[in-house]
């Protein structure tokens, strides 16, 4: 009999690995090519998160040695604090997040969490400590309950519902024909952009990580949904060290620090008020977005 079950055990193992692979893939924020092999150091220890102090110290990085991407980045995010990263397309914003997740090893400097170099801790412990709300959420052809529960293996129905409540999607789910058993994904119910984001938020709540990366979608949701999601996110950020990769400056006014990344360097940094007073790149981006928003409102009226 055990011979019969062994292959099934194997299958279970393979399945779990694939699932972890998918979680990692989602975390790559639509990054298509395979990253260079990142391996655990022989003496790697599990990361011990005590408060969630994240630091980048003179970090340099390239995908291709011919083309430096990050050129001496210094960042420090206090435990529970929020850092927002803004800047033109291609400046290296997503790259910063991928480096924190250690999809790639850096070529110079170090990245630490509570004083521990992330290159010297196990990848498994590092990735367990970091939650990601990606731009695009991958939904499986399965129930909505399953899709949320996949944020943490072994989550109970009660935990899944609590996470859905935290992400303000519980009532919506209850209104579906089969509640939590409703099939979603390509072959099921199609969720809107905002609903998908809420599924991603619920997954992160289940994972309950001390560090959170929010990768804001480029395409804006309608302004009411956007405001609702932002309010939910403010709650999720509480007590976690958060990095927001932002495209809409209106969503990061509350951040402790905003850094403007330009061609792999920090061009400006400070609070929203400080950066506005500086009247530089950030202020210019802010004015441009404000007038674009005004145009849109006029069109809609
Ligand atoms: P966006 O706002 O458009 O998402 P970004 O600031 O997040 O841009 P990154 O995705 O970090 O920019 O990319 C920074 C630079 O690195 C870009 O020039 C990009 O072409 C390059 N790049 C990104 N990923 C890879 C990769 N896997 N291999 C080679 N180059 C890459």
UniProtKB/TrEMBL annotation:
Biological processes, Gene Ontology terms: intracellular iron ion homeostasis
Swiss-Prot/TrEMBL keywords: ATP-binding, Membrane, Nucleotide-binding, Transmembrane, Transmembrane helix, Transport
Molecular function GO labels: ABC-type transporter activity; ATP binding; ATP hydrolysis activity
Any one GO cellular component localisation term in the record: plasma membrane
Name of the protein described by the UniProt record: ABC transporter ATP-binding protein/permease
Domain ABC transporter, first and last residues per copy: 54-288
Cell compartment(s), UniProt: Cell membrane
The keyword Glycosyltransferase appears for this protein: no
């Amino acid at each position: 009999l055990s011979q019969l079950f062994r292959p099934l055990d194997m299958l279970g193992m393979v399945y779990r690995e694939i699932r972890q692979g998918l979680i990692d893939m989602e975390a790559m924020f639509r990054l298509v090519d395979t990253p260079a092999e990142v391996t655990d150091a022989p003496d790697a220890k599990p990361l011990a998160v005590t408060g969630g102090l994240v630091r980048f110290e003179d970090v340099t990085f390239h995908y291709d040695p011919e083309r430096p991407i990050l050129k001496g980045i210094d960042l420090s995010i206090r435990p529970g604090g929020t850092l927002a990263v803004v800047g033109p397309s291609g400046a290296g914003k997503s790259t910063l997040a991928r480096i924190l997740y250690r999809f790639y090893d850096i070529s110079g400097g170090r990245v630490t969490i509570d004083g521990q170099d992330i290159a010297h801790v196990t990848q498994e412990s590092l990735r367990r400590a970091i939650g990601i709300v990606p731009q695009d959420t991958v939904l499986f052809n399965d129930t909505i309950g399953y899709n949320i529960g996949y944020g943490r293996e072994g989550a109970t129905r009660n935990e899944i519902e609590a996470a859905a409540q935290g992400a303000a999607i519980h009532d919506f789910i209850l209104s579906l024909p089969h509640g939590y058993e409703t099939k979603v994904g390509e072959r099921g119910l199609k969720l809107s952009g905002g609903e998908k984001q809420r599924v991603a938020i619920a997954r992160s709540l289940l994972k309950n990580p001390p560090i959170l990366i929010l990768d804001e979608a480029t395409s804006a949701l309608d302004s009411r949904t956007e405001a609702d999601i932002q309010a939910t996110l403010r709650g999720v950020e509480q007590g976690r060290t958060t990095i927001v990769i932002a495209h809409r400056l209106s969503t990061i006014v509350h951040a402790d620090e905003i850094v403007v990344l330009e061609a792999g360097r920090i061009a400006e940094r400070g609070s929203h008020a400080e950066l506005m007073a500086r009247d530089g790149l950030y202020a210019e981006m802010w004015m441009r977005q404000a007038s674009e928003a005004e145009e849109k409102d006029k069109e809609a009226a």
